Each structure stands twice: as structure tokens, then as C-alpha cells.
Amino acid sequence: MPKTIIDIRNISKVYKMGTQLVHALRDVSVSIDENEYVALMGPSGSGKSTLMNIIGCLDTPSTGTYLFNGTNINELNDNELAEIRNREIGFVFQTFNLLPRASALKNIELPLVYSGVKKYDRIDRAEAALKSVGLEDRMEHKPNELSGGQRQRVAIARALVTAPSIILADEPTGNLDTKTGNDIMKLFQNLWESGNTIIVVTHEEEIALHAKRIIRLRDGLVETDEINQNQVKF
Amino acid sequence: MFNEIKESILLSIEALRSNKLRAFLASLGVVIGISIVIMMGWLLGGLDKAMQDTFSVIGTDMLYVDKWDWTEHRNWRSFRNRKDITIRQAEQLKELHGSAEYVIPNINQGSTTIEYNGETYVGMIAVGTTAENVHTPVGNLQLGRFFNELEEEFGSNVIVIGHLVYTTIFQGEDPIGKTIKLNGRPLRVIGVVQKRGTMFFDMIDRQMFLPIKKYAGIWNVDKRSMSVGIKAGLDNNLDEVRNETIGLMRIIRNLKPNEENDFSINETKAFEKTIADIKFKVYAVGIGMTMLAFLVGIIGIMNIMFVTVTERTKEIGIRKSLGAKKRAIWIQFLVESSVLCLIGAFLSLVLCSVIAYLAATYLPLYFPEIGFLLPVLPTELFVIAAIVSLVVGLLAGLIPAIRAANLDPVEALRFD
Known about the structure:
The complex is a heterodimer.
Chain A: E1 4-17, E2 20-33, E3 37-41, H1 48-55, E4 63-68, E5 71-72, H2 78-88, E6 89-92, H3 104-114, H4 119-132, H5 148-160, E7 166-170, H6 178-193, E8 197-202, H7 205-208, E9 213-218, E10 221-227
Parallel strand pairs in A: 3-8, 3-9, 6-7, 7-8
Antiparallel strand pairs in A: 1-2, 1-4, 4-5, 9-10
Helix pairs in contact in A: 3-4, 3-5, 4-5, 5-6
Chain B: H1 2-17, H2 20-58, E1 62-66, H3 76-80, H4 87-96, E2 102-109, E3 113-116, E4 119-122, E5 125-129, E6 141-144, H5 149-154, E7 158-161, H6 163-169, E8 179-182, E9 185-193, E10 207-211, H7 212-218, E11 227-231, H8 238-252, E12 264-266, H9 269-311, H10 313-321, H11 326-366, H12 379-405, H13 409-414
Parallel strand pairs in B: 5-10, 7-9
Antiparallel strand pairs in B: 1-11, 1-12, 2-5, 2-11, 3-4, 3-8, 6-9, 7-10, 8-9
Helix pairs in contact in B: 1-11, 2-9, 2-11, 2-12, 4-8, 9-11, 9-12, 11-12
């Protein structure tokens, strides 16, 4: 029996937009186990970004429970949520979200700074992470000296460096050309094959097909949640 | 925590470097505020030093019995109506005094003419006194010696000149043994008093000391009031000496028990009040200006920090998504505003050091009365400037830092 990492039960999320209430998520239950490769799909407005934010502990649900590795996320305060994000979740964003003034290595070190890792250890681990995405010769480059694909690799290295329980990628190929996008997806596949748990949020069918399991959302509800029989592998 | 602050300092220096002009303009208010604090401290430091110098000129263990009060200028008419202290009274005081180490009668004459080497000089002050004056601060000689008791007794033709007299008349030439003519009488220069003048006592270097009997041969001693210098010997003996002096003077001047003293006891303490007044004025003006400058400074820094927080909303979102706690975010921005202010403090110190050096070096050449200015800033001002700037930085950065720390990570990440 594989270990359950994400256990979401009947969560909803309601936003106030002026006087109107917006139900971004209505009644969503999702469970994700260790070493799964999940694509979270849906058109814009389907609630997939909201769900991603909740899975990533950037946001908390209005109702329902979210257990992360057995911890009830609803009961945590801001600092405890920050700790979970730091230790357990590796984010990869569409726009890379690297700090522009910091070198690749410094960017990767950052999560370790926040978890209080000593400097030498930090550099060792950041270098290893950069090596694992094939950018060991770009350590001192600033983001604007790197190509889009290289930036996303740095971002992936940053997500990996804390050895998190899940890697949460939000439209990771959205700002990349097809070939570079494929390279990135190949990297995710490798990471999955080496035991990582990966959740990719996307609206592109092609990207979703790389995952082992596809969850489709529509209007704040889970439309389908099934094993991808046609998984595309490199 | 320490590590976090260290990282934040490096970060903020980098951030400020990427926006030098803005950082400079933002810290301008702080630069002005701290400069005022520094200049105030510098002035007060100079005043303190001037006060110490004055005290050492007068002597902290000295009392002076005078018709006039040194610091009370408002009621000078009532002092004018007092009877002169006569040479006879001064001598009586000397004879009767038990607790004082020395009692030294002095008589001053300001309308003098000196002739030397064919030139005539006016404006110097002749002081008829006794040989015991060598035991007061006057006795600190730069050259030669003071006149002795024998010369005093005989009213010899000798004179000890003040520093300004020496530089004015002799201009570097060795004065010892030279003869000058004081109101026509030839006198041999036997000593030169060290430079003693301060802002409160600038006339003091114009003095020339000669035996009282010699003085009496030139001017009528009954025409002027004596000033009697009394050396207590030990500072802690001063109260006793003062009491005895007052008692004796009342007897000598035949005062009835219900009459007020018709003489003044002058001492260094009198100047403490004058100095305290000046200091108070400097403080009052300085603190007012400082408060205003710091208010402007804090608002300036706060404003720029709000701009910085807004500009870096995305960055804050990224940091939060990577696990930065609130503390990490507010430390980052507090450190940044503190570094900004510390840079301001550094600029102020450089600026003020230059001003202080130039002012103390060149201004007294034109305005001798401000010779008390210190050419180097007192060390404690560096510490004060650092602490004050740090406090300003923390105050100004507090609200922006809290706002940054409380940003919602989802909103912040969405920001462009």
C-alpha cells in the first residue's frame, strides 16, 4: 500500500468579489499517493489554480479537510504553512519566478536559507541540484543570462533542493517553445521515475498526456479522475 | 536569526546598489537629521572643552573677591554704586585669612601705552599683583620666571607679559631681558605667561603682571577697585574658604548684620551657569531642528520602503512560496531600511568631519571668539550617529516591513 501524501476531503473555496460570492471549488475530494505523476487539467475558471494553491499550502480551503502527510492543514498558522511549503513542496511556475538579481546558485540556495541550512551544506546541495538538471556550468549566471529552458531548469532545481514530498508545477511549459517544453517534461518524467511525486497543472492536453493520472476539473468540481492509459513517455 | 540578518544585509546592499540615486535621495532627510545631531554634539563638545579651559585658566580652587560680579550683567548699576575694594582692605583680608593657602591682591589698569623698538602699543592690561600669583594659573609660564618676593617688596622694574602681549610686541623675538616702556616707565621683561585665552576669557592674554608697588608708582591705586585672588589650595576646602572670606570681608567693610554683601565672590562655578545657558540654547534649537529633520527623514524612508515593497511584491510572493516565514520577510525589509539609514549616517559623518575640520581650522582666523571649535568630531558622536540612524531605520521600516510580511502569497505571486 503506497503512502498517501495528499488527502483532500470535500473541500470548497469561496471568494468574495465585491458583493458577489464566487465558488471557485465546490466539493472536491482528491487523494494523491507517493510517487504518483498527476496532471491537473481544466479550462480557465475551472478552479484548478485554486486547487493548486490549496495543495501547495499557499491558500487554505473554506470548508472541508486537507491532510498533508497526515497533518491537518486547516489547523496550521501562516508560519507553519510556510514551513510545510519549505520542506514538503517544490514549486515550479509558468513564469519561472526566479529572483532576477541572484545567480542561479543563489536562487537554488534560497529555500535552504529559509530552512536554516548552514552555508557550506547549502552550496553543496544547491550545486548537486543544479547538476541534476544539467546546468552545472551555469552556476553564477543570473536569470537574464539564461534561456527560458535553462531558467525553468533552475526553477526545477530550486524545487528539488529541499527533497520535498511533492513537486507542484503550474503550467511549467507555458512560456517555452515545444522542443524546450518537451525537454522539461522529460526532466519531470525522469524525476518521477526516480521516485518523486509530481503534480502538473496544465490546460494543454499534450502536456497532461505525459502524466500517469489525469484529474479534470470543471466549474469547481472534479469532472473525471482516471489513470491515463495513453501515457506518453520519452 | 543572525544568519538571516547577515543574508538580509547582503541582499539589501545589492538592492540599494541597483538604485543608487533613489537610495541617496531617500536617505537625504536622515543625512540632514544626523548631520544636525553631529554638529550639535560637536558644538557642545567644543563648549565643554572651552569650559574646561576656562576653568583651568581661572583655577577651580580659586575665589576672586571683586566689586563686580562676573556673570551678573543686568544689575550693573547696583554694582557700580558699591564702594571700591581698597588696597588696605585687600591687605587686611590677606593678614586675617586663616583657611586660604594664598591671598593675592590684584589691581587692573586698561589704559596703557607700551613703547618698544620705536613702536607704540595700546589696549594691553597692566595688573599690579604680588609674587604669590606664581601659585595661581598665571604662574604657568612659557618663558622666563615670575617676579619674586624681593622684587615685589622693592617694587622692581620687572614685568611678566601675557601671551598676546608677547606675540604682538615681540613677534617671535626672545623677550626675556628686553626693556619695554609702560606709560613711560622702563620695565624689564622677565617672563611670558602661557597662552590661556578662551572664548569666555579672551582678554586674559592681554595682561601684564608687575609688582603692586611698581604699579602704584605709575597709577593711583586708590582710583580703582582691587580684585583679590584667593587660592583655597584644595577643591574640597573651597566652602570653608568661601565662608571665611565672606565673613572677613563683611567685617573689613563694616557691614551691619542686616546689610547685603557689597562685594562679589567670583569663581569658576559662575561660568557653569553661563555654559549651561548656552548649552541649553544649542540643545533647544538643535533638538527642534533634529526632530523636524528626523520626521522628514522617517517619512522619506518610509515612503521609499513602501515603494520598494510594492515593487517587490512578486519577489515577496516567490520567497513566501519557497517557505519564507513572516519574520524572514520583515527582517529583510527592516534591515534594508536600516542599511539605508546607516549609509545616511556614514555620509553625514564624512560631511560633518570635513565641515568640522574646515570650520575649526579656518573660521577662528577671522572670528577668534569661536576658537573653541574642535577640528575632530568627538568619538562618541560616531556611536550616537550609528545608533540614531539605526533607530530611525527601524522606525521608518516597521510599517512597510509588516505590510510586506502580511502579503497574501497567492496575491503576491499574481502581481506583475
